[in-house]
Amino acid sequence: TGALEARLIPETNYGYILFPPISYSNLMKDVLESLQSFTTNRTLEGLILDLRIAGSARGWPLEELLTLFHDGNIGEFYNSENQEQVITINGEDQFGSQSVPLVIIVGQNTTGSPEIFAASLQAGGRAEIIGGNTPGAIESTASFYLPNGSRVFIESASFRLPNGEEIGNSGVKPDVEVEAGWDEVLPDADPVLDAAVELLSTP
């Protein structure tokens, strides 16, 4: 549908949020409403954020989402002119978001800001990552026209974690690797989601 999908995992107090391929204006609002719904008359014991189809469209609320789940330095953006912008997040707890156990699902179609989001929470010890390695498609590009009318795209900016790791080179490497093609994912049988539930349930 192009919108956020959220539900409770049956027979658990785990919330599940599937992010769409492209961001939209009410994405952050829908995340907050999902967290509110998950915590109404119950204690949320775990949260699964599924980024397997989340792409790098402009407007993805990276810093706003990080504010829900993280606090402190996440790394820095830098460009080809050696200009750096350190990103520091002032965390804000919403419906227990800062303390709920967190698992993030990623895969080969997770690109751009969702990759930075997952890598930052992994590096900060806030979330465990499960699924497949992401492609590291986080670089910003600048386009230039050539005299013959063609155009060339050159990577002009990227991101690195506080430990210096370049996500653009390695992608996000899951803590628990579970490879499953989309032909193996059925409405009531998703091996990666099942593994994420198991990970939350393991003491």
Topology summary:
Elements: E1 5-8, E2 14-18, H1 27-38, E3 46-50, H2 62-69, E4 72-79, E5 84-89, E6 102-106, H3 113-123, E7 128-131, E8 140-145, E9 151-160, H4 167-170, E10 176-177, H5 191-201
Parallel strand pairs: 2-3, 3-6, 6-7, 7-10
Antiparallel strand pairs: 1-2, 4-5, 4-9, 8-9
Strand share of the residues? 25-35%
Alpha-beta content class: alpha/beta
**Separation, N- and C-terminal Cα atoms:** 36 Å
Low-confidence stretches: none
By DSSP, the count of extended strands is 10
Task: Give the overall silhouette.
Answer: globular
Within the largest sheet, what's the order of strands? 1-2-3-6-7-10
Number of helices: 5
> Overall mean pLDDT score?
89
Helix content percent band: 10-25%
Radius of gyration: 18 Å
SSE topology string: EEHEHEEEHEEEHEH
Major sheet summary line? 6 strands, mixed
Report what the structure shows.
By secondary structure, the protein is of the alpha/beta class. The chain is built from five helices and ten strands. Strands 1-2-3-6-7-10 form a six-stranded mixed sheet, with helices on both faces. It has a four-stranded antiparallel sheet with strand order 5-4-9-8. Strand 2 (14-18), helix 1 (27-38) and strand 3 (46-50) form a beta-alpha-beta unit. Helix 2 (62-69) runs parallel beside helix 3. The chain is globular. The model has no long low-confidence stretch (mean pLDDT 89).
